[in-house]
Predict the structure of Bifunctional NAD(P)H-hydrate repair enzyme.
Amino acid sequence: MRLGHSVEVVRAAEGALMARLPEGTLMQRAVAGLAAVCTQVLDGVYGARVVVLAGSGDNGGDALFAGARLARRGAGVTAVLLTPDRAHAGGLAALRAAGGRVVGVEDGPAVIARAALVLDGITGIGGKGGLRARAVPLAEAAHRSRAAVVAVDLPSGVDADTGEVHGAAVRADVTVTFGTHKPAHLIDPAAEFAGVTHFVDIGLGPELAGPVLEALQHADVAALLPRPAGESDKYRRGVIGVVAGSRRYPGAAVLAVSGALRGAAGGVRYVGPVGDAVLARHPETMVSSGSPHQAGRVQAWAVGPGLGDGADARAAVAEVLASDVPVLVDADGLRLMDPETVRGRTAPTLLTPHAGEAAALLGWAREDVEARRLTAVRTLAERLRVTVLLKGSTTLIADPDPDVPVRANPTGVSWLATAGSGDVLSGITGSLLAGSLPTRDAASCGAYLHGLAARVARGPLSALDVADAVPEAWRSVYV
Ligand SMILES: NC(=O)C1=CN([C@@H]2O[C@H](COP(=O)(O)OP(=O)(O)OC[C@H]3O[C@@H](n4cnc5c(N)ncnc54)[C@H](O)[C@@H]3O)[C@@H](O)[C@H]2O)[C@@H](O)CC1
Ligand SMILES: [K+]
């Protein structure tokens, strides 16, 4: 599991560890890891042109010391000091001693244009607000140049704790993070500015208090997914009820069922007006056209995709929410549901909105949800006292208990932004709920498998391709 810690927790851990170590040890551990990544990124260190952008804090110190190491190995290193009178003294001395040269901010863009590598040490976890005006032309020059941009700890300008980006920020190809990940490495928009993240262990682990964020990896998902035992039957494995689709949107029913069949459930009941379309594609489905309570026993419901606005749809959503089994609500279901009923449920509820649907439920603008994903998902979960899976470029899952870490899904790819892909996710995730996974685990495993399936299917894909690739994704997490 990858963990994301808050700046406050990182600082406390660093303080505790530093108190037991000779001065400068932690920074030199960070610098050794940083210089090693720079060496990998450069096509040969000797003679390479390297530019170090150094701010006034320890982040600048890391960058200057790494620049010194590269200079000692024959790189031509130029430091651009943002605040020359407040640059990190030790780092600057090391750089000068190694033969590095120093220029002012005005000369920055010209040296960046000729560089093979730009090291961004303007700000790290101490950065507040976006980049200051003086730094903006440097960030732009780095983005324009052919240089590889390596961010020290964080791309300068992003908010470490929230992944928000206020104003300009450095766009990195690689970010080298020290001690642990911070939310900015795992949540968009900041994660997009970070590029590929490299983790450097500086020994902080044992000192770190609880994370604010978790990102599951293969082994975590493999441990959570149920494996049918020898004596399993369909009810022991769980039956999922899918309430989706309408005469106008029959495809949503087919897609949600195709996801549900690839989750953990031993059987899928479809309830709605387009059972024929579902059966034509998936003959193993148990279909009925009455109301949900007449459909027979289920261990969880997934309700909402393609329901439209009709009175029947609204009644079906209310009926499902009145049940005492876990319910996943998606798409039209999110508009048709009564928030008070949702808040009052005793069985688990999982909402799976995209940014627009979350915005409607929160009364925010859609852009605000996209810019402040962590706050949005937490606020909605706390307000409605449910688990919320906020879909998007980085899918986040928040528990109603604010002390439980938010999960960030690492497998998403942009090919998933295709019509009907959310319906498949509802099916998979609802099926995991029916298979008795706890709500947060069902949501995170569902998002994980869904993203992985899109990667397995590769390239431009339809929602059905995603559903069809889920079994292979499922198998791949076990190895
Ligand atoms: N905390 C840790 O465990 C470790 C920290 N290290 C490094 O130290 C960094 C933190 O150092 P600091 O606490 O000195 O903080 P930073 O170096 O991140 O930034 C603080 C400085 O930047 C200025 N500043 C703040 N916002 C700015 C903005 N928007 N534009 C321009 N300047 C701005 C402040 O006036 C302050 O002088 C980490 O990110 C990491 O790179 C590593 O050396 C090793 C271990
Ligand atoms: K930085």
Notes: The two ends are 16 Å apart (CA to CA). The mean pLDDT is 96. The chain has two domains: 2-215, 218-478.
